[in-house]
Amino acid sequence: MSRLRRFLRRLREAVPVYTALVGLTVFIVVPFLWLLTSTLRPVSELYVYPPRWIPQTFTLIAYQKAFQTFAKPLVNSAVYGLVTAILTLIVACPAAYSLTRLNYPGKRSVTAVFLLTQMLPFVLLLLPLYIIYLKLGLYNSRVGLIVGFTALTVPYSVLLLRSFFAGLPIELEEQAMIDGCTRLGALWRIVLPLSTPVLVAVVLSSIVLVWNDVLFTIFLSKDLEVQTASVALYRFFTVRSASGGVAQKEVMLAGGVILTLPVIALFTFLQKYIAAGITAGALKG
Amino acid sequence: MIEPQTISQAVGASSRIRGLFSSRLKRDEIVLGYALLLPSFVFIGLVIGYPLVRSAQLSLNRFKLTAGVDSEQFCGLCNFQSLLHDPFLDVYMRNQVIWVLGATFLPILFALVLALLMDRELRGRWFWRSVVLIPWMMPIATTALTWRWIYDRQWGLLNYFLRQLGLISENVGFLTDKLWLWPSILLMAMWMWFPYNYVAILAALQAIPKEMREAARVDGCTSWKEIWYITLPSIRPVLTLLVVLGLIWSMNDFTAIFLLTEGGPGIDSTTLAPLVYKVSFRYYDLGKGAAIGMVLMLISLIFGAIYLQMVKAEEK
Predict the structure, then answer these.
(1) Would you call B160 and A51 a contact, using CB atoms and an 8 Å cutoff?
(2) Spatial contact of A240 and A251, defined as CB atoms under 8 Å apart
(3) pLDDT digits (tens, 9 = 90+) for A19-65
(4) Which residues contact B268 (CB under 8 A, 6 or more apart)?
(5) Residue among A205, A50, A211 at smallest CA distance from B156
(6) Across the strands, what pairs with B285?
(7) Centroid of chain to Cα B238
(8) Do the bridges between strand B73-74 and strand B61-62 make them parallel or antiparallel, or are there none, so unpaired?
(9) Is B61 in a helix, a strand, or coil?
(10) Is the CB of residue B294 less than 8 Å from the CB of residue B306?
(11) B162 within 8 A of B168, measured Cβ to Cβ
(12) Closest Cα partner for B111 from B30, B203, B198?
């Protein structure tokens, strides 16, 4: 009897919780599932009323077309992401080390400047940046885009690395320096090998930033040849008339899925690093 | 065998030497410190620093490309005055307020509800956890494309759904109809921005000591009371931080609205960040564009200062 009562009480608690969870989950997954199922059908089934969740004929033809359309931009995104990530590490690690382990006047202001760059309206920078890029010959060039991306990732990465370095015991580095290591030697041999999780977080966030960026690439380049996949996708779905609009819908949607898959892969394999990075970077500054 | 005396002598000598060279060591440390910062300064200076200074300068100059490429001339606060007397200023301000408040609080609220529901022993934890991350993993270009497709006037899923529910009798243009425009934009904002807040809030919830809740329960607290008197006060610092960050980010955000509606129809969803772009790149009024951007930046910096203070307080 009492067991039954306990069961009923548990049920009374669990039912509303699970009902609410299912409701919220539906809202979260429906857009993604709708995108997915829209790409697995021939065009004729895309424009039907009422909308059909399960296509009558499965086909991957949209993906085939999308891969052709987005091949080059996808390669661009990947290359820019990797180069930006490496460049960010090269630039941000020494800066973060300097901010944690060395003492000099102006250190606090420098840290504050890094933090405040995260709070600027970037759209304000675009016009002068556009002009200076034209003057320096960086406009519409791969180098120009990578330089821009790196400037975006560095401040955030420095803060992330700084809070991680600060948590490492300083004794190890002192020991190394007594044994004849220079400061930079200590950074290279002691600090960096201990910092793998945060280094991974920096690399990941840099790649994802490049992958997702629309704003910078649109304003600092004009040819699809050098642009990233996100921007290629954006151009596809806003410039309707140029490419026959309606007929290309399924290609755009498939492109959207293709764009998401690498990010899902990165997140899945490296989930714990991301969580660590988020909490360290955003909430501790 | 080393005598203790030798050691103390050696230590004494070394500290004396150190004293002798300390000023030089100190100078070396300053030089090295800045040398290590230099590469980051180069990137940030070129891409952020210089454009910022140039924008500040532009905002004080009259410079319309329509009047010639070399028509730039100092005019004091004329651009800010022109902004104040803009006939559509009230529309822009209304849009900005709706957008900033909605895009800040809706995702946080959604995240809070979800986190409170998830903060317990659940069957299929792995499943729920992955589901929550989906909107986070979507690149914003895909997100905007997906929602545009859902909002499609003719074939959109939402039109069908609302008609099935009997809430609308004929198809609605969610991104063109004034009544539906902002709810549609904010729905997307909520969908794509709650995961970040959710992760932060859940982490804070799980840091609440179990004893506190058990004590509350022993004292006869109901779940609602427990949430109100124990849970929410414990995570208040995180919530405040998320609100401040959300305000700053949504205030400056350009991409979400630009990709979903391009600020349209007309100017009905134009907030300040897209306005900077429109005024500079479409009306070629570079001075005024910069001035609007400066206003936006000043407001953000005020919130930024609040954020810094809060972080400092947190560290103590």
Answers:
(1) yes
(2) no
(3) 888 899 999 999 999 999 999 988 888 888 788 888 888 889 889 99
(4) B91, B95, B178, B181
(5) A50
(6) B64
(7) 15
(8) antiparallel
(9) strand
(10) no
(11) yes
(12) B198
Is the CB of A196 inside 8 Å of chain B's CB atoms?
Answer: no
| Cβ contact A162:A280 at 8 Å | no
With a cut of 70, say whether residue A246 has pLDDT above it: no
> What's the fold here for domain A62-284?
MetI-like fold (1.10.3720)
Other C-beta atoms closer than 10 Å to the C-beta of A21 total 17
Nearest to B36 among A95, A116, A282 (CB): A95
CB A258, CB B138: distance < 8 Å = no
Q: Which residue of chain A comes nearest to B240, CA vs CA?
A: A283
**B121: closest chain A residue by CA:** A14
- What HEC string does B4-42 produce? HHHHHHHHHHHHHHHHHHHHHHHHHHHHHHHHHHHHHHH
- Which residue among A48, A128, A263 places its CB closest to the CB of B54? A128
Contact at CB, A260 and B203, closer than 8 angstroms? no
Contact B152, B241 (CB under 8 A): no
Domain ranges of chain A: 2-39, 62-284
Please list, in sequence order, all residues whose beta carbon lies within 8 angstroms of the beta carbon of residue A23, skipping any fewer than 6 positions away.
Answer: none
Asked if B283 has any chain A CB less than 8 Å from its own CB, the reply is: no
| Residue recorded with tokens 């509303």 | A16
Which amino acid is it at B165?
L
Beta carbons within 8 Å of B311's beta carbon, 6+ residues apart:
A284, A285, B241
Q: Which residue of A has its CA nearest to B195?
A: A28
Q: What is the pLDDT of residue B272?
A: 94
Find tokens 């509606």 and name the residue.
B261
Whether residue A105 lies within 8 A of chain B, CB to CB, comes out as: yes
Query: Which stretches in chain B have pLDDT values below 70?
Result: 1-22, 315-316
The pTM score is 0.88
Residues 220-279 of A with CB under 8 A from B: 230-231, 233-234, 237-238, 249, 252-253, 256-257, 259-260, 263-264, 267-268, 275, 278-279
Q: pLDDT confidence of A276, banded at 50, 70, 90?
A: low
Q: Cα angle at B177 between B176 and B183, to 5 degrees?
A: 100
Confidence label for A275 from pLDDT (cuts 50, 70 and 90) = low
Tell me which residue in B29, B203, B255 faces A279 most closely, judged by beta carbons: B203
* Residues 6 through 35 of chain A touching chain B, CB cutoff 8 Å: 17, 20-21, 24-25, 27-32, 34-35
Query: Given B114, B117, B245, which is nearest A282 (Cβ)?
Result: B245
Q: Could you tell me how far CA A250 lies from the centroid of its own chain?
A: 25
Averaged pLDDT score across all residues of chain A? 86
Angle at CA B28, nearest 5°, toward B24 and B30? 115
Chain B residues whose CB is inside 8 A of the A261 CB are none
- Chain B segment 91-150 residues within 8 A of A by beta carbon are 110, 113-114, 117-118, 120, 122, 128, 130-142, 144-150
